[in-house]
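Final report, closing paragraph on structural work. Over the funding period we assembled a curated collection of sequence-structure pairs, and we close with a single example.
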Amino acid sequence: EAVMKINPELVIIIPIFNEEGNITSLLQDWEPVFVQTGIPYRIIVIDDGSSDQSLALLQALQAKNSHRAVYAQRNAGHGPAILKGYRMALDASWIFQIDGDHQFDTAAFGKLWEKRELYDFLLAERTENNASLPRRCLSLLSRLTIHLLYGRQVKDVNSPYRLMQSAPLKQALEKIPPNSFAPNTLLTAWFVGKKK
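Its predicted structure, as stored:
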């Protein structure tokens, strides 16, 4: 487990489950984006009990770059993996989370990063053109719930493309059980409710 000596300003959390086909290109495509910020950063990858070669590949890639840290856990689910990563990242000023399936455009990060001083919580919206019916139903139900509770500020409440300031995130994490199924939805609700 690699640990950087300098506290990073930005920590990137990436949960992984059976993504051996995406890991190398994911890191190759995203790492230059973080280097371009010009600040100390660390990438924390949480392997959630992958049964393919994801963990071995991640460990090999970690050895090649001191900015990468890989942690393995028994399969507990996407939500608990994200929460573990968030809690490990609280020494940074900013925490960014993306999923390990490499489905997201790197270009939107710059737009979030440019606006970070204006907000505690920034969220990119997914386009769900190729999403499965269960994913679309879950997203719709989540959106309706958040709209009823907090208004129409957020369209994609469970988006795994989020940039958060760590101090308010730490406050929010105190309210969220560690085994939550959809912690990002709960975090979105917390940030919106607190007008962050």
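The beta strands are 10-16, 41-48, 68-73, 94-98, 121-123, 161-165. The longest strand covers residues 41-48. We thank the funder for supporting this effort.
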